[in-house]
Amino acid sequence: MLNAPQQAPASREDYLALVAEVARHARLYYEDAAPEIPDSEYDRLLNLLASAEAEHPQWLQADSPTRRVGSASSRGEHRHEPRLYSLANAYSQEEVADFLKRLGEGLGGNPAPVQGALFHEPVPTVVPCMCELKLDGASLSLIYEQGLLTLAATRGDGETGEVVTEQAGCLANLPRRLALDPPPARLVVRGEVVMEHAAFQALNARRAEAGDRLFANPRNAAAGSLKLLDLDELRSRGLSIYLYDLALLEGQPMPSTQEAQLAWLKLAGLPVFPHARRCVEVAEVQDYCTHWEANRTSLPVDTDGVVIKLDAVPPRLELGWTAKAPRWAVARKFPAQAVATRLMAITWQVGRTGVVTPVAELEPVLVQGSTVGRATLHNEDEIRRKDIRPGMRVWVEKGGEVIPKVTGPAEDPAPWPLPQWPETCPECAHALVREEGEAARRCPNPACPAVRQAAILHFVSRPALDVEGLGEKLVTELIRLGHLRSAADVLHLSLEALLECERMGEKSALNVLSAIEDSRKRPPSRLLFALGLRGVGEKAARTLLRHAATVNRLAALPAEELQGLEGVGPRMAASVEAWFALPENGQLLARLAAGGMDLDQVEPSHASAASDHPLRGRTVVLTGTLSGMERREAQARLEALGAKVSGSVSRLTHLVVAGENAGSKLEKARELQIPVVGEEELMAMLKTNEAEG
Ligand code: AMP
Ligand code: ZN
User: N or C: which end of the chain has fewer CB atoms below 10 A?
Assistant: First the structure.
């Protein structure tokens, strides 16, 4: 983050930087739902922008966050009445049957098997249910007063949601006025906001064009869009809503079944998703689920299951609610959806460590709302194990991740030719190596352009240093222009270098620079992860730095000391030691430091892990020469214990560490009767923490 300004920007440059910063926070809040600063701080920054714009109207940017409809302060909250519930899940036909049985029992009905209990035939239920498709979007609660839409709020935690009334007004199929005369005094209805597949693809195509981050799926796109302040943009995204719940009706009698409620909603002119069906038999309910599980792709929107609700409304009160969900409804969740398509070819992609991984080139196919043309095949062994061969039809799935995967053959592999394994790097033609005990082939050429690019992309990626705006296109271009030869060059990028890139305006370039500035402040474990040492993932990076406190200190630690830390085996320990021993990595670190990366920065959780260390919160002064370690290292380690290291001795000093040839500071300490320790004692104190790991 930039240092938050305290005053309105005085130069155009500062103004533009602040526009970018506020826009970033708005994005974090509205699109990612992951704000980094409190609302009050956001409001403060927005006010600074507004005053700068009032004073220097010539600076004003058309897309300044101040120009958007509404402002941070209009992020109102709404208390839901009645509250919104979640749904209990059923993952199999048996669980559905169980639910229906419980429903019958709960209502004191007669659920006894009529015939054939011996044959495990489904128990016929005499309890009529409504089956509805479970649309996968964002839930929204609407209030109509005297027939007019007066409030819309997101689900939030179910009790309080965020007011998005203006945004709801932009939903393509939602009337602001009910088609009832006379209208009810007050109506509360609930529904799901969705983005149709076609709209989703158009939106992502537009975002790809603009270099914006893509939405992973229509649900995220719908939820993100609902918070947009730019209503024109929101309208252009073509969201729809379908209502499924009449939560409150005042001034008119409430329809007493779910079926009648849906009919009432339609009569009121409100959109209701088609295909709901009233079922009486267990088998009917199960058929409905089976049918839609098989035919879900024929729908224009994503569904993730079927909601089965007790049709009659009054007995719902009797059954009641658990803390989270009604006892009179259940969601039959569909399993992850697999789609068959042709595997046209297997291509090989070089990753940041030189590992060559197989990629499936597919005949494009629609999987859960987005077109999939490529998918991961994991590794060579997996391909062998599943007997996947180019040319054949395969199953593709989208799981929870954004990247789809090929899960197996969708036809007999026998007639198809076996895949060919690469011998040379597809990027630099260097011979590949396959190390013992490893599933993957690797390009060992450190100058391989693919390795370099992948390493830089990893360095700036979200879980690593998270440099927003430095995407694949831009990195490729910066490499081509010669501005990025290593990951460390990212920290040396200049405005001029960025402006050389195609379609890069000053504003976007400043955004990238401010993102780079932010990246310098990430904890050292993120830096270590970003450096991409073999085997060192996010978790191991944290473990290593919790132990070592700083990157510089980690560089000096022998493998034996690392080995045995939680999750750090001999192999990883050796790989870490070897990495730091390589001269070119030393140069990389030096270049990072020259680019403003503080390699003596202490891992934050390191300090908290040592929360009960006696030095925590104490002010320590170092003086004289230490023989065993450099002073800055001693400082880092003290800070890691939660101590404060100060440069001068005063009455507020708790402890003075005196090395060889200590001078005036030692005298002063004696004068003020402050405890003094030598290097050995210091080492002992530091060890107390090492023991805790
Ligand atoms: P879950 O979030 O899995 O607990 O499921 C509950 C959510 O399903 C609700 O908050 C709604 O947003 C959503 N939903 C989608 N379609 C329906 C429907 N027909 N009836 C009830 N809830 C639905
Ligand atoms: Zn290569």
Answer: C
Residue 134 known to be catalytic: yes
Q: Which ligand is nearest to the Cα of residue 448, counting in written order?
A: 2
Quote the number of domains for the chain: 6
**Which atom of ligand 1 is closest in space to residue 133's alpha carbon?**
19
Last residue of a domain, one of 464, 490, 519: 519
User: Which segments of 313-379 does DSSP mark as H helices, in order?
Assistant: 314-319
- The verdict on 415 and 497 lying in the same domain is no
Catalytic residue of the set 134, 309, 333, 398: 134
Which of 33, 374, 88 minimizes the C-alpha distance to 227?
Answer: 33
Domain identity same for 437 and 468: no
pLDDT digits (tens, 9 = 90+) for 471-529: 888 998 999 899 999 999 999 999 999 999 988 999 999 999 999 999 999 999 999 99
Same domain, 160 and 279: yes
Query: Which residue has tokens 């899940």?
Result: 89
Residue 231 vs residues 70, 240, 348: alpha-carbon distances, Å: 10, 14, 43
pLDDT at 630: 80
Ligand 1 atom 8, closest CA: 134
What is the rounded CA–CA span in Å between residue 116 and residue 136? 38
Q: How far apart are the CA of 517 and the centre of ligand 1, in A?
A: 42
Give the ligand whose atoms come closest to the C-alpha of residue 244: 1
| Residue ending a domain, choose from 572, 594, 616 | 594
Whether residue 687 has pLDDT greater than 50: yes
Same domain, 161 and 290: yes
pLDDT band at 196 (very low <50, low <70, confident <90, very high): very high
Q: What is the CATH number of the domain that holds 658?
A: 3.40.50.10190
Q: Residues 626-663: pLDDT tens digits?
A: 887 888 888 888 877 778 888 888 877 888 888 888 88
pLDDT score of 605:
66
